[in-house]
Amino acid sequence: MDHVPGDTSPDPAASGALPDVAPQLRALRRRRGLTLEAAARRAGLSPAHLSRLETGNRQPSLPMLLALSRIYGTTVSELLGEAPPERDPVVRAGRSEPVEADGWIYRQAGGAGRALQCLRVHVPYATRADIVRVHPGEEWIHVLEGRVRLALGEAVHVLDPGDGAHFDSLTPHRIGAATQGGAELLFVHTLMQSPAAELCLGDGTPHRR
Can you name the residues that pair with 175 across neighbouring β-strands? Predict the structure, then answer.
């Protein structure tokens, strides 16, 4: 669990639980051309807190690693300095834990560390506060349950179960459910190695359910 920014006390939940990720965190941030302040803002941390993570004075929680890996366009495994395992082409249903970010609930539906990121997503009901995204890459969605409202530039499309959309994600876009109970969809996007490569899943730090 994260602590209040500025708290320098050790994190007992994380102490000794993770390898030293400090060198990787700093190297990946610099490789993406992000300042400490910019990266901290995207991750919802104070610059001082992120600085302590990069110097090894604090250990990041797993939700924090998920957020930072998304910002840096990489995987948690790379942040931890792990060698990539032999890729298994089969993705079993029970192997992926749901992760939540701002009401979006998603499960990995594809292999880790690949150029295409495949997810099964529960989309919350669309509101005016939903964020418009613009970033390099392509996205493809396919609606499984409920109805989805997809805004692409000035056009708004309502997708029913069985409908899909494939678009250039440099087009300003916003995705939300058109039904109050939310919607289920398959979501595929290209993971671009750039500071702008972020999933269109809320704006908060992901956490395990």
Answer: 150
User: How far is 209 from 206, CA to CA, in rounded Å?
Assistant: 9
Q: Is the pTM of this model over 0.85?
A: no
Which two three-digit tokens encode residue 108? 């990995």
Q: What are 100's strand-pairing partners?
A: 105, 207
Structural tokens at position 184: 């289920």
Q: C-alpha distances in angstroms, 135 versus 123, 146, 148, 197? A: 20, 26, 21, 6
Query: pLDDT tens for residues 149-197?
Result: 999 999 999 999 999 999 998 899 999 999 999 999 999 887 544 333 3
Nearest Cα to Cα of residue 47 among 56, 59, 57, 35: 35
H helix intervals, the chain: 22-31, 36-43, 47-54, 62-72, 76-79
Question: Closest Cα to residue 204, out of 71, 7, 80?
Answer: 71
Residue 144 φ then ψ, to 5°: -100, -45
